[in-house]
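Sequence only, no structure available. Ideas?
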Amino acid sequence: MLKRCAWLLLVILVAACSRNKAELTPDGKMAKADEYFANKKYARAAELYDDVSFERRSAQSALALMRLADSYYNMNKFTDARLKYTQMASTYPDFTDIETAYFRIGVCYFEESLPAQYDQTETGQSIEAFRLFVEKFPNSPYFQQAVEYIRKAQYKLIEKKYYNGYIYYKMKDYSSALMYFKEVIDLGNTDKLDRMSLYYAGRISLFHENRVEATFYYQRLQERYPDSKELKKLKRYF
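Reply:
I predicted one. Tokens follow.
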């Protein structure tokens, strides 16, 4: 009997909550969602913003969609956030703060991207998104951040080239490995990726018995990284 009473009470409470939610006007839902958002209760805010965003006759629809995207963004649900920001950009292109939507589309793609040794589709998409952003909003306060994101994403693509070379090297497919290492070296950066690429390119050239090319990589390594352990390892062959 006690269990039955508890179950009936639960049913009544659920029905009452549903009735209260249904009775809220779009403005009422928006106000409640904003309250949740301000208190960082983003999941509860998102539920109400989602309701309001479907109220096409409501003056709050655009803002609700933007806040829905912001809620997902603050929960690190970057794919959901990106989809809503993209919907925002296409549905409400004249929204007051639309540049934030464009900027965060790029951020979401970057956050969705995998580590450098894996597929870099999202990294490339983030670069495209940020380039579109800087083209559309050259005076935005987000402009410099967008440029920095582009640099980080481009460097990640360089890392991918290095890892491709390293994987082929481990597979003993030296010709393919050398192709990727050369791409990294030709960029002319002075960093770990360049140093390691020079080392492995030198090792591969020695394996191919191409003394001239091996000497080139050895000398480049000596000029740029005279105290490196990679130089010491390669030196034993010269």
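The CA atoms of residues 165 and 177 lie 4 Å apart.
Hope that gets you unstuck.
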